[in-house]
Design a protein that fits this description.
Chain A: Its EC number is 1.4.4.2. The structure holds 2 protein chains of 2 kinds. By secondary structure, chain A is an alpha/beta fold. Chain A is built from 13 helices and 17 strands. Helices cover about 35% and strands about 10% of the residues of chain B. Chain B has 15 helices and 12 strands. In chain B, β2, α6 (about 175-180) and β3 (about 185-190) form a beta-alpha-beta unit. The longest helix of chain B is centred in the C-terminal third of the chain and has 37 residues, at about 330-365. In chain B, the strands form 3 sheets. A 7-stranded mixed beta sheet of chain B has the order 1-7-6-5-4-2-3, with helices on both faces. Chain B has 3 domains: about 10-65, no CATH class; about 90-340, 3-Layer(aba) Sandwich (Aspartate Aminotransferase, domain 2), CATH 3.40.640.10; about 350-470, Alpha-Beta Complex (Aspartate Aminotransferase, domain 1), CATH 3.90.1150. Classes of the chains: A alpha/beta, B alpha/beta. Chains A and B meet through α1, α2, α3, α4 and α5 of A and α1, α2, α3, α4 and α5 of B.
Chain lengths: ~450, ~475
């Protein structure tokens, strides 16, 4: 079998052996002691030629039910939205995707400028002063934000709403063990954070109050009432958000949030089974030097021409080692680029139009589905593009029926909130048509 | 002459669009009828307004101001800048991989689960470990995951006092940083004159408080830690565990396995060893493999195979919990899987043999022109010191900038920290002998210039879109975003 990624010919290798004065490549592995040198062949499958492998991969892909064949009402943190064709064309330029982190700015101006523009767009969206170049995803960005809050406040207790994505809370719990944080969950009332409970739990030891809006149930939190509670005892307000909602909704920055996080996945990144997506991390100017990860800054070259560099690196692990603000090294740069291209394509007007489409379709769906016998809204709150319905029957069962009718149903809330077993979280994005929503209603009606 | 490129915001003109949305097919009253006024945005976000061609020209121009592996040689040490196969890029875009949701019922994503299961198995075989989690998003996240498992392991044995993680002075910066965010104290162990972990010094720092030793093998100097068995015994004897930083795994595929060396936890960087593209800084993927003793602590869910097909298992009562949203960077898993199926067992072994051969060839041919701090055979990378050139008035940074004039990405510079004026060179196996010979010629020319005409190096780069940038001002007076002028 030949290997098309390996250019060395036998003649090349022999010439190189001669230069090195060796007889075989084994001579170069003599420093690996015999008792740990691997003998034999790795027990992994034999190689496949390109056409055979292509067929194999197509078969594997075909074993998955994709949005191409099914109308999906699944959201819960990962959403199918419109992706203009240009996005994939730009990120397929290999000058971008085959490059490393831009350590050599003179030959990385393209990446650096694109990320500088990304940071600017995230600041615009969130109403914040500074954004970094990306994090792994929304949930890990949220956990890092808790770490920042603890380190700037010198306090270790964080309050997190139970209406924050369950996976984000789970990651925070894992992270808290390493950072020595105490995590206290604040219960919900009618699908939003119970502010009385929040107020009661907040005290001088509180490093941060963490909320999500639109929250996991799709409902909008009243950030104007949360902000004074968060700041009363000099803690930070951390808000996780859905970026497309900010085409319509007042950004967390305008409510006084100190750190705004979330995932740019809805903006130009395929759902792809949950990753890679792209976390964003935006802060007030005051926290600029506490931000984890890479940041691009503007400067000039020797001739006075504008250029861009990685900056404020004194925060980072390769300089500060154990004293760094975070251990993050690789981020999600290519996905940040995808989102920057997406935000450029949609632009100032398109983003508002798209957000409005989401709002309208989701509201139509909620109204239409609520008319079905034994189906009722679980909450009564303002919401963006996702809402919860009480179906009064096992969600998995309902989803099996829907699947047969070409529909991927919503998220089973009972998975993470036992008290709401039999309720479904339904996302209706710009990709769903009235026809598909009516079809969903028709199938659900058949169940009643 | 440097040339400025307009920001996308500076190209914006109201009325231009690069999107296309259908008209609403449902009732569309004013948003204020559905959302309380106080929650609605008053000032729209200042996103650019450009046409589709404006957009494409902008990003095409930016791409031309960027250097990737596809543009030319990229011997960036410890980063394994090998070729990123195009087939992998095609496959990951199949709707059956790109357009599926992580919360779909398992029976509707059997292909994805099968791929993840098989990849777990392959990576376990390659590293000699018992089980693998694919959840971590990158190497550093893998390190944190591994260390949190080590922490949970010690705690399960009532050994909460083990609060120190030992790292060699040649370690990647992420190692001590990961130790810190996992709640450990990082303790540095110095290298000996051969560039290897000093066993004597190790014995001094190992003790009852040792949680783990983190080691890269081959290390960041490109040298194999020959005494690894003894090192492992010392650490295990003291009750600690061994963590393998897989950043340099490209040297050992099919030649040696961390599991056989005595390591208990391993992370791999799929974006290094297994060809997933670096993407200008990410996304990566950092699967973690563990020995049986750590299996109960794996993050959940783990993909398993049962009578009904593949499924997510949450049956790990001592799990450290979740480390990453959903199921890890699945798109990178698809690429790595495709690569492993392209290469097979013999191909992967050939990868490491060629990677090591290439590095040794470069080192040999450059040894008379630059200082070589460690003269023994290297593995997939090696270090040079620019000390000789420094005495001629040219620093390693200057030589790095001079390489840019030849369309070559410089090596990693000033790392590891223990070598003065360090250049860390990793050619990878996907480069031809002609490319290596060209690089050698250029390096020799630069060495000659340092002797005869240092100005040409000091003034480099000469042919890049911008000249050297003022990084000091960038950090002192940070401008981190564009803002609309009033």
């Amino acid at each position: 079998m030949n290997f098309r990624y390996l250019p060395m010919t036998e003649a090349d290798r022999r010439e190189m052996f001669e230069t090195l004065g060796i007889d075989s490549v084994e001579d170069l592995f003599q420093d690996i002691p015999g008792n740990i040198r691997f003998q034999g062949r790795l027990n992994i499958p034999e190689p496949m030629a390109e056409p055979v492998l292509t067929r194999h991969m197509k078969r594997l892909a075909e074993k998955n039910a994709s949005f191409d064949q099914y109308a999906s009402f699944l959201g819960a943190g990962a959403y199918e939205h419109y992706i203009p064709s240009v996005v994939n064309h730009v990120i397929s330029r290999s000058e971008f995707y085959t490059a490393y982190t831009p350590y050599q700015p003179e030959i990385s101006q393209g990446e650096l400028q694109a990320i500088f523009e990304f940071q600017s767009m995230i600041c615009e969206l969130t109403g914040m002063d500074v954004a970094n170049s990306s994090m792994y995803d929304g949930p890990t960005a949220l956990a890092e934000a808790a770490g920042v809050a603890s380190s700037v406040s010198g306090k270790s207790k964080v309050l997190i709403s139970r209406a924050v994505h369950p996976e984000a809370r789970a990651i925070l719990t894992t992270q808290a063990k390493g950072l020595g944080l105490e995590v206290k969950e604040i219960p919900c009332h009618d699908g939003v954070t119970d502010l009385e409970e929040l107020e009661a739990a907040s005290d001088v030891d509180t490093a941060a109050v963490i909320l999500q809006s639109p929250n996991f149930f799709g409902n909008l939190e009243d950030l104007s009432r949360v902000e004074p509670i968060a700041h009363r005892h000099k803690g930070l307000l951390i808000v996780s958000t859905h970026p497309i909602s900010l085409g319509l909704l007042k950004p967390p920055g305008e409510f006084g949030a100190d750190i705004v996080v979330g995932d740019t996945q809805p903006m130009g990144i395929p759902v792809q089974f949950g990753g890679p997506h792209c976390g964003f991390f935006a802060v007030t100017k005051k926290l600029m030097r506490k931000v984890p990860g890479r940041i691009v800054g503007q400067t000039t070259d020797e001739e006075g021409v504008r250029g861009f560099v990685l900056t404020l690196q004194a925060r980072e692990q390769h300089i500060r080692r154990e004293k760094a603000t975070s251990n993050i090294c690789s981020n999600q740069a290519l996905n940040a680029l995808a989102s920057a291209v997406w935000m450029t394509a949609l632009g100032k007007v398109g983003l508002q139009e798209l957000a409005k489409l989401n709002l309208d379709k989701a509201h139509y769906a909620r109204e239409r589905l609520s008319r079905i016998d034994r189906v009722e809204p679980l909450f009564d709150q303002p919401f963006f593009n996702e809402f919860a319905l009480r179906l009064n029957r096992p969600v998995a069962e309902v989803n099996r029926v829907l699947f047969k009718e070409g529909i991927i149903g919503g998220y089973d809330l009972g998975r993470d909130y036992p008290e709401w077993a039999g309720s479904m979280l339904i996302a209706v994005t710009d990709m769903r048509t009235k026809e598909e929503i009516d079809e969903l209603a028709r199938v659900l009606e058949g169940l009643s | 002459m440097s040339e400025e490129k307009a920001l996308i915001f500076e190209m914006s003109k109201p009325g231009r669009t690069a999107y296309s949305l259908p008209p609403s097919d449902v009732p569309s009253p004013e948003a204020s009828e559905r959302i309380p006024e106080g929650m609605l945005r008053e000032t729209p976000a200042e996103l650019p307004e450009v046409s589709e061609l404006d957009l494409i020209r902008h990003y095409t121009e930016l791409s031309r101001r960027n250097h990737g592996v596809d543009n030319g040689f990229y011997p960036l040490g410890s980063c394994t800048m090998k070729y990123n196969p195009k087939l992998n890029e095609d496959v990951v875009r199949y709707a059956g991989f790109a357009q599926i949701h992580p919360y779909q019922p398992e029976e509707t994503v059997q292909g994805a689960l099968q791929l993840m299961y098989e990849l777990q198995e392959d990576l376990a075989k390659i590293t000699g470990m018992d089980r693998v989690t694919l959840q971590p998003a990158a190497g550093a996240q893998g390190e944190w995951t591994g260390l949190m498992m080590i922490k949970a392991y010690h705690e399960s044995r009532g050994e909460n006092r083990r609060n120190k993680v030992i790292v060699p002075d040649s370690a990647h910066g992420t190692n001590p940083a990961s130790a810190a965010v996992s709640g450990f104290e990082a303790v540095t162990v110095p290298s000996n004159e051969q560039g290897l972990v000093s066993v004597e010094e190790l014995k001094k720092v190992v003790g009852e408080d040792t949680a783990a030793l983190m080691l890269t093998n081959p290390n960041t100097l490109g040298l194999f830690e020959k005494e690894i068995k003894e090192i492992a015994e010392i650490v295990h004897e003291a009750g600690g565990l061994l963590y393998y930083d897989g950043a340099n795994a490209n040297a050992i595929l099919g030649k040696a396995r961390p599991g056989d060396m005595g390591f208990d936890v391993v992370h791999l960087n799929l974006h290094k060893t297994f060809t997933t593209p670096h993407g200008g800084g990410g996304p990566g993927s950092g699967p973690v493999g563990v020995k049986e003793v750590l299996v109960p602590f794996l993050p959940t869910p783990v993909v398993e195979k049962g009578g009904q097909g593949y499924f997510f298992s949450y049956e790990f009562p001592h799990s450290i919990g979740r480390v990453k949203g959903f199921h890890g960077n699945f798109g990178m898993l698809v690429r790595a899987y495709t690569y492993i199926r392209t290469m097979g067992p013999d191909g992967l072994r050939q990868v490491s043999e060629d990677a090591v051969l290439n590095a040794n060839y470069l080192m040999k041919r450059l040894e008379t022109h630059f200082d070589v701090p460690f003269k023994q055979a290297c593995k997939h990378e090696f270090v040079l010191s620019g000390n000789r050139q420094k005495s001629q008035g040219v620093r390693t940074l200057d030589m790095a900038k001079r390489l840019l004039d030849f369309g070559i990405h410089p090596p990693t510079v000033y790392f590891p920290l223990i070598v003065e004026e360090c250049m860390m060179i990793e050619p990878t196996e996907t480069e031809s002998k002609e490319t290596l010979d060209h690089f050698i010629d250029v390096m020799i020319q630069i060495a000659k210039e340092a002797e005869e005409n240092p100005e040409v190096i000091l003034e480099a780069p000469h042919h890049t879109p911008v000249k050297r940038l003022d990084e000091v001002t960038a950090a002192r007076k940070p401008v981190l975003r564009w803002q609309k002028e009033d």
